[in-house]
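Anyone opening a protein record will find just a pair of labelled lines. A complete record is shown below as an example.
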Amino acid sequence: LQLHHSGRYHCTGRMVAEWRESEWVTVTVCRVPLSGVSLSAQPPGGQVALGDSLVLSCMVYMGTGALSFSWHREGSGAPLGISPCLELNHIGENDSSQYRCRLSDGDSVA
């Protein structure tokens, strides 16, 4: 559901040769704020050997709206990626750092 789906709804159906209508119902779609954002790593714990790959995944338990993701490395301003998963291939010594996923629904950030 999207916010624009709020409104009044009813259904119409045909029984034998007669059309019938249901009562109207009002539907109100509300935003659910982002909550329960978590990050997981594969391999678990984020411990990898030089030259191996690391996959980081960002998940959200609840939230509505169009979600946008961005990945950040401590000390670096530029985003590393904009999808729910970040894959780091051929890990080198310079890749050791703290990584963070930033999630936005257009109204809030987590």
